[in-house]
Target: Glycosyl transferase family 1 domain-containing protein
Amino acid sequence: MFEEEIGMAWFLLGGHFSNGGPDNVNQALITSADRKILYIKSNNKPVRVLETFWKILISEGVVVSGACAKRYYDFMKVFHKKFVYLMHGCMDFENEINRLHLSSDFIENERNLLRDAKCIVCVSEGYSEWVKSRYPEYAGKITFVNNGVKLEQREKKEKEPFSVAVGGGNRCIKNNNAVSMAVKKMNSEGIPCKLYIFGRKYPGNEEIEETDYIQYCGHMDKTPYYERLDHISCFVMNSEVESFGLVAADALNCNCSLLMSQNVGARSIMKAEDCDIIQRPHDVDEIVEKLKYIFEHPNSNRLYESIDVQACSERSSFQRLDAIVEGAIK
Model:
């Protein structure tokens, strides 16, 4: 891991070992790269720290994928390393809405990354517009690369009638509480709707009450997660802001209908219609009406077939990012 030639490749600074959003994106970039790049190989923390410093030093430039530790930012500054910031989320905003209680130093480090990056690459076209509106002073260096998706539609399984799934646990930014209220309302109307909540329970966030028809499933590995999705009728992404949302591809791979808020970045890769979009994420009545329509008119095949598979492939996303990085760090 310390044998690479100096200055021959850019370094992808970010984890790729866990089943989480940025890690999954990084793993896809690594496996789809059609040229040499540097990336972290050790999952041992002390070794990983040394490896990171070394690869920053020998790289031709750095792609900071998500907020990095301050020590790495400081190291890049000392050695005048040019870097691109691959932006999966806005910690300043998420700290506020999700009540994360992050330290001021952590938030300040993200601001430094935004300020000093040669280019800010958002992970969807839609998200890039939101970031430009939040940071107009950086609009001139903000661009996007839609996350690559792996589309492998699975064998169709019998769907549980009126079943709904959401991701992200009880994080406020996901607005899953509004979905739970919609499910409660449908049950009060005699529609036996059931909600499955994937992801963790976060302390300090609004609690979503479990009932006979609202169930927490926790954080799951990919295989059992897909096996559960195979039987879900509709996956709802009701986010306040969603930089991309790889779960959209998961849902469509498992033949789930998809209902998304207008703020979901994954909309950028498909042709969604008004009936697929929640315009007001806090409007329970709108969610109820959209769910009723989707239960009667499933949209999974239509949305799946609307995606340009070649343009949205993981290889295409790497190539677009690579071109941006090469232009920024030269």
